Amino acid sequence: MKRQIVQDIKIEQDLTINQLVKSLYKSGGFTAKKVAVGVDILEKMIKDKHCVRFLSFPACIISTGTRGVIKDLIKKRLFNVVVTTTGTLDHDLARLWRPYMHGSFQVDDKELRKKGLHRLGNIFIPEENYGGIIEKKIQPIIHSMYNKSKKWSTKNLTWEIGRHIEKERNSEDSIVYWAWKNKIPIYIPGITDGAVGSQLWMYYQTHRDLTIDLLQDEQELADIVFTAKKTGGLIIGGGVSKHHTIWWNQFKDGLDYAVYITTAVEYDGSLSGAQTREAISWGKIKEDAYEVTIEGDATVLLPLMIKALYERLK
């Protein structure tokens, strides 16, 4: 094995983000080097014209400014398929209509409850800016959809919501809007696990023939995977969105490209903390895939990595 000398990072005034990331590769600095490797893999994946690209992420980051990074990836069509959780719809849509606030981890949550504030990490969400506004806005959309069809997949549900919000003042800030606009499917396996899902259940109380067809989503995912020459994934966080992405890709002998960003640990056997090497044992990532697991907070790492990627792609 060729030995490389560890080089110091030099912060120059005109240093670009891409140059900084490349210097992390040479610095050999623990997770920093993985960040550089991750951007290299993303660049290869985006430039591979035979690769179907999956983007997987949990809802929590959509409550933060990282929503803008995710939205931009979809707006620029850098990914072909999105797998996420219902909370992505919740936060993306709620923030379309009402603001979220900076908060703190170090706070008395009992006092927040009295003041009508939800806490998501260090983000404060007024109650009226979440459940109430989602119910007010989503129920008419569900009714309009119901009048068109009694059966919806989560992809078509998401696209229909995107179509309905087109004329909203801030629609171009929305992930859902750009997914509809660019016809990029969003699949949500756990659709009832969130505020929008609860609104579907509420409507179902008086419209028992309303059906959310999860198996249609699964069939479409199967068709995507089985017809793809190659697949790649940027997989942020864990849970059902991560697993659903790698689960389907095992049926084509695994992802050809995989970049994980996670804060979870692997020693408890959790899927969220499982490294890319574990997925290789299941055939969810190919043995010879370009792959890396980057330990860290996506709200810090993702903007850095995507800016470096954009500078390379120009």
Question: Could you characterize the architecture of this molecule?
Answer:
This protein is an alpha/beta fold. It has a domain at 23-86 and 150-194 and 204-313: Deoxyhypusine Synthase, CATH 3.40.910. It contains 13 helices and 11 strands. The chain has helices at 17-27, 31-47, 66-75, 86-97, 109-114, 131-148, 154-164, 175-181, 195-204, 214-227, 239-249, 276-282, 298-313; strands at 51-56, 81-83, 101-102, 117-120, 123-126, 151-152, 186-187, 211-212, 230-236, 255-262, 285-295. The strands form 3 sheets. The chain has a 6-stranded parallel sheet, with helices on both faces. It has a 3-stranded antiparallel sheet with strand order 3-5-4. The chain has a two-stranded parallel ribbon with strand order 6-8. Helix 1 (17-27) crosses helix 13, helix 6 (131-148) crosses helix 9 and helix 7 (154-164) crosses helix 8 (175-181). It starts with 16 loop residues before the first helix and ends with a helix. The model has no long low-confidence stretch (mean pLDDT 97).
Compile the SSE list and pairings:
Blueprint: H1 17-27, H2 31-47, E1 51-56, H3 66-75, E2 81-83, H4 86-97, E3 101-102, H5 109-114, E4 117-120, E5 123-126, H6 131-148, E6 151-152, H7 154-164, H8 175-181, E7 186-187, H9 195-204, E8 211-212, H10 214-227, E9 230-236, H11 239-249, E10 255-262, H12 276-282, E11 285-295, H13 298-313
Parallel strand pairs: 1-2, 1-9, 2-7, 6-8, 9-10, 10-11
Antiparallel strand pairs: 3-5, 4-5
